[in-house]
Amino acid sequence: MVLSSCTVSSWPGVLSMRERSRCLFFCAWLFTFGAVVFPAHALQVFDDRGTALTLAQPPQRIVSLLPSLTESVCALDQCQRLVGVDEYSNYPAQVRQLPVVGAGLEPSIEAIVALKPDLVLLASSSRASLRLQSLGINVLALEPKTHADLRRVLHTLGMVLGLPDERAARLWLRMGSSLNAVANSLSAPARQARVYVEVGRGPYAASESSFIGETLTRLGARNSVPGALGPFPQLNPEFVVRADPDVIIVGGSSAQGLVLYPGWASMRAVREQRVCVLNPEQADVLVRAGPRLAEAAGLMARCLNEKMQAMGKSK
Length: 315
Prior knowledge:
- The chain is α/β, with parallel strands linked by helices.
- The chain has helices at about 1-5, 15-35, 65-75, 110-115, 130-135, 145-160, 165-185, 190, 210-220, 235-245, 270, 280-285, 295-315, and strands at about 45, 50-55, 60-65, 80-85, 120, 140, 195-200, 205, 220-225, 245-250, 275.
- Strands 7, 8, 9, 10 and 11 form a five-stranded mixed β-sheet that branches. Strands 4-3-5-6 form a four-stranded parallel β-sheet. A two-stranded antiparallel sheet has the order 1-2.
- Helix 3 links the parallel strand 3 and strand 4.
- The chain starts with a helix and ends with a helix.
């Protein structure tokens, strides 16, 4: 075979002119196309389940089943790789034109398969992982729950997408700079405010240990729900009455309209109208641990500045 004899040391006085030509042609072909046929190295990453994913090349057809991951891919300027999303992924506007494959936790497997993805992004709690993997589809489970998680997820996505290392780093720095600017806009009274943030009817609250609670801490405000209760605990409404927050922020499923829980009418924040009810679009920004973190901080900062200013005037 030419391959076995194509060595420089074997050329002089051994290979004929015709064989040398064949050898040179083969080496040129291998140099040009060999990297495609035989990748120099594959990328391996571990997801939030501790499961290893090996990719021979960056994915070009991605289905995202978690809104924060959808937004993160787009924030890394790779929206064009998305070919399908879950029913709650609605930002940026261009993803609304993509096929919807159902809810993120229990999507339509058939709809996903029909899109022929080379990668599916989903939450670690999604029940679709094993089924998709059994069908030979690459799955990466990432679920940011804290600021540190979000930074790590952006870095992981950058690697998987084959982007330069600095792309995710620059995005994170921009987010941090914007968050600092929002924090600097907070008034002195707002920095002392005790805040209750509701993210779902129950009530489910954002505690100090949630990414929303971390954002409040960055702003300088105080959370009425301790982190020891978990990131998003379901509370007895009486707990909030006893906590007596200065300001109440209502988002998530509660954003459809404020319906008072038993005993809430007696709270000063309710009596003095220090309650901010976010509309559904604003609630999406608030509850997603994604690249719009500073925008979520801005929503809370505006609420705190307005309500604490009103509180000062009423005294």
